[in-house]
Amino acid sequence: MSRSNHGEFVDPVRQVDAEGLVNVLGNPLDKDTFRDHWTMLYIGKPGCDESCRTSLDKMRQVRLTQGPEMSRVITVFVIVGAGDIGHLSEYLLTQQNMLVARLQEDSSEKWLKPYIQKDGKSPVDTRRVYFIDKLGQLMMYFELDGESKEMDKTTGMRKDLKKLLYDSKIG
Q1: Is residue 93 part of a domain?
Q2: What is the pLDDT of residue 105?
Q3: Fewer CB atoms inside 10 A, N or C side of the chain?
């Protein structure tokens, strides 16, 4: 049986929002930040090691390959845990309009829950890029650990996003 998607569908989709997230200045994000556009989201730690940076680079590249449609997509890096992120400042400037948010400690368990998939792994400890549709529904994710035999994972993400944008009845 052939399948046309490269990512894993979240079944059932889960409603998510930005409640409990603050920007780098400490100001709360609007609860509906993930609405009215497609969102590619990565969850990581303040240290953001090389694999974290590679994941963020892949998200940026996939967004840029959408050409005129890229304005319909935002990229978000959610930082979980205490720790200084000053060392990331220069790197994050290269990420072209990526929204960087920090999860408030008192909100972390509730906020992370929808991102836990069937394997039960914490989203902080996985290298996953999550797709959120324009209605704020978590609907797909890409596992970036390991190698894909069929194609580069960035290519799979790019193809799925292009198809979602093209087929979308919600904009």
Answers
A1: yes
A2: 86
A3: N
